Amino acid sequence: MAANEFTEPHRVVYYEADDTGHLTLAMLIDLFVLVSENQNAALGLTTEFVQSHGVGWVVTQYHIQVTQLPAIGDQVTLKTRATSFNKYFAYREYWLLDAEGNQLAYAEGIWVTMSYATRKIAAIPAEVMTPYESEPSVRLPRLPRPDRLPAETTLADKPYTVRYFDIDENGHVNNAHYFEWMLDALPADFLRQHQPTDIRIRYENEVTYGRQVTSDYVQPDDALVSQHAIYSGDVLAAKATIQWQAR
Amino acid sequence: MAANEFTEPHRVVYYEADDTGHLTLAMLIDLFVLVSENQNAALGLTTEFVQSHGVGWVVTQYHIQVTQLPAIGDQVTLKTRATSFNKYFAYREYWLLDAEGNQLAYAEGIWVTMSYATRKIAAIPAEVMTPYESEPSVRLPRLPRPDRLPAETTLADKPYTVRYFDIDENGHVNNAHYFEWMLDALPADFLRQHQPTDIRIRYENEVTYGRQVTSDYVQPDDALVSQHAIYSGDVLAAKATIQWQAR
């Protein structure tokens, strides 16, 4: 039996776009999470229902492939499927399609349920998984990881302080905000002239309100790839590798 | 002849809300600007058309009154009207209504056209104003200003650096982001337990990419009012007075 799919229409609006008029990467993630939340709600899996089992969904890894970021006013379709799962991990896919059904972006995510009591990974409660009709699977697809950097790599860094509005209902920085810190560290002119095409990100540790983080990055000259790490003190919060192409 | 009105439906989604699940003030402004942009587009007044006259719309002042901020999942209606104008200023009104048509929020704004050549106020081109069928008026409504503070007032301050994603198509910080700086400076627990009910804000000078700003604020003990100023160096960028009530 194939897992349930869920789709919804969306129109890209001005505050979802950067100053080139294209959807931002952070907003792309917001929209992918939105369509999965709307699937959840349609299946009766509201945030309150999930929380009533003492857990919240937390993403640990994404692999995102972008063909073309849509522009303000574009009518798009968001689509998702909770494809498969095992005791601790759930594998979810996401699609962004244009008005003709062409793929603009595709993402895979690995999600876990975090216990609110211990703030550690807990076995996924059956009640929050069954309604998707996903495939139980011992071995889930393995997403490509961010690059391992040579030990001598020197990264530039830019400081950020976690804001109240960065925090979500799980009491930590929402995963989309990491992209704002990672990308904002790069030069504005580079961001204007390039779009991300392939993003591998791993979330290692949660970051809470008021913390100071650094957005570390390195981008070799002439290379259309950037390496990123977010640190909260000495603790690695997330790392990512992003490939770019000229717009 | 009364000015054209424009309405559109909207459903509040998770990334528009804070960790209490309510629409943020910055998002309320984004939605009000969105409905006015959609009115513009419906009247053929696209950003490109306005820019072809060498100008962009810039807000100088808002007065916002909030009865109740909607929650995630709420179906609301956005409504706007470009009520009246004179040579240099346009007066616009905004409404946020619940599913039964009850008013959740109301705002008034004073807008000007900024010349891209001089970055100063320019006379409003007739071509960008006529389609609204607004009332020409020598004297526009005067919005209440932020409070004048006693000279000896000491304000706390919190630093922010302007991010690439804060910049809009006018090449400066979008007006909604000022609310993120102003509100984030207040304690998280206060923000969780209170909602803004009356906001008076004046935008004095634009802020551009990469600038360091300070969000200055004072909130007298036990007073449900906060005073705010955003400075870019010695230059006042915006000031505001916000009244609050317990949620």
What order do the SSEs of chain A take from the amino end to the carboxyl end, as H and E?
EHHEEEEEHEEHHEEEE
- Beta-strand level of the residues of chain A, as a percent range? 35-45%
Output the CATH class name of the largest domain in chain A. Alpha Beta
Gross morphology of chain A:
globular
Overview in brief:
Chain A is α+β, with helices and mostly antiparallel strands.
Describe this entry's structure for a reader.
The structure is a homodimer of 247-residue chains. Chain A is α+β, with helices and mostly antiparallel strands. Chain A has 5 helices and 12 strands. The first copy, chain A, folds into 2 domains: 1-143, Thiol Ester Dehydrase, Chain A, CATH 3.10.129; 144-247, Thiol Ester Dehydrase, Chain A. In chain A, 17% of the residues lie in helices and 40% in strands. In chain A, strands 1, 2, 3, 4, 5, 6, 7, 8, 9, 10, 11 and 12 form a 12-stranded mixed β-sheet that branches. The longest helix of chain A has 18 residues, at 25-42. Chains A, B: Residues 5-132 form the Acyl-ACP thioesterase N-terminal hotdog domain. Chains A, B: InterPro entries: Acyl-ACP_TE_C (IPR049427), Acyl-ACP_thioesterase_NHD (IPR002864), FATA/B (IPR045023), HotDog_dom_sf (IPR029069). Chains A, B: Belongs to the acyl-ACP thioesterase family.
